[in-house]
Amino acid sequence: xxxxxxxxxxxxxxxxxxxxxxxxxxxxxxxxxxxxxxxxxxxxxxxxxxxxxxxxxxxxxxxxxxxxxxxxxxxxxxxxxxxxxxxx
Length: 88
Description:
This protein is mainly α. The chain is 57% helix and 0% strand. The two termini are 34 Å apart.
């Protein structure tokens, strides 16, 4: 597993945990420990996504702070229907 895959795995694990805690809090809103865990996991998830996007670009079309990414938006070099002067 390379670094990119490890980062994605971490994001998946944090998202799963955040969703699970959110569902738990729907039925146990008074549980302060679960709320604290949810806040902590949500912060970790935000940071993990920001780190991934700084390194590899947006996870989704409206990711965290696109204007701050060094890599910028990754446009395709050309679209399949564009004329490439006989190169396609």
